Fold:
Amino acid sequence: MVPKVHILASIPPFLLLYYFYGNLSLAFILGSILIDIDHIIWYALKHKSLNLRKAYQYHRPGGSNEKDILHIFHTIEFWGLFLLLSFFHKFLLILFLGITFHLVMDIYDMYKYHYSDVRAMSLLAWIKRHV
Structure:
């Protein structure tokens, strides 16, 4: 899913959370948008480049024919870690809600447009396949 959609879709839940949590609700925006930094990390490691435009194009549907890409912040292990951390502080809970919101949108998009095989869903499974 493109960043613009993530940003626009994150605004209504952010505003709702802001009503209850004030500035703490910025954690929702952080979780729902900055999680995609792993796309840049993958591109940088794979292509030895920090060109953001090329990284963006690479991750667009049809931009690469690569399968089993590891976006580490999109894995079930990362999500589970933040689920556990969310019990310790409101900031982490709201961050977790943003991450969950982002991942639900991504999963919906992947299955709707039939590219669910592009991204590894589990870090451990990815390691097992590539080591």
